[in-house]
Amino acid sequence: MRVAVVDIGTNSTRLLVADVGHDGTLTEVERRTKVTRLGDRLEQAGVLDDRAMERVLATLAEYRALIDGCGTERTVAVLTSAVRDAANGDAFLARVRAHGGALDARVIAGEEEARLTFRGATSERPPDDATPTVVIDVGGGSTELVVGSGHEVSFHVSTQAGVVRHTERHIASDPPTSAELDSLAADVRSIFERAVSAEARDATRAAIAVAGTAMSLGAIDLDLECHSANRAHGHVVSVLACQRILERLAALPEPERRAVRGLHPDRAPTIVAGVIMVIEALRVFGLDSTAVSDHDILRGAAVETVHRGLPTSAPAPGT
Question: What is the C-alpha separation between 279 and 289, in angstroms, rounded?
Fold first, then answer.
């Protein structure tokens, strides 16, 4: 079945069109990412900003044209942290549904976000791989930490730590000051330490970091052009490498960060917070490296759309 999945996140709006086989194999047809920053000023205002919503809706119009040209049989959209948290999230969901034509859009809970992310990240692993692994999904408004073996989840948590949320909360200078960086790291560390059980920490032996921050880390570490960042898929980045990259990025004002090889310019405003979150997540689990992967919630939702089906009539939280 050819399916299209749109992930409307706090920092970016992404599209995956793929052919999914009954055996779980997935062949990408089209993939797009646009940094739309839906969560701009949400931390302070508690509502989604009008201009941010319009950016997402304009991006959906672009994606709709691509989807229609691909002959998809099913089209779904998942809305995550920003829409969950915003007072006007339900109203925005209604606009997405009205704007997206045949788009089956719904808000998913943090627990489902974590499960779909783990399914996507581990989709190419042998099901008998028993290595307890944490999947780290750093997003704009939340970070999902999911532990499991094979394709089975044993622990998951959706935390209120995100690159947009924590940049707005802690960073006011450009480049950020040492005090701001220390404050952000301490806040994230506290959130992760409270959220992750001792059993999950002790059991975990490996990590996979997914999505934009992780792929940016891999691309910078490999000195790739940002348009070739997908070549970083599977690359292993050490904590020491992450620290070196953090020091480099945090010393640059935003206009200079935009020019760093491997980093998409639109990620420059939040990448410092993102790198800190990856480092703190690895430290909580006592790990010294992580593989980076572009297999994440998009892939997990695409596979599940075919094999289980995302409910078409399930109400969004609060509706």
Answer: 9
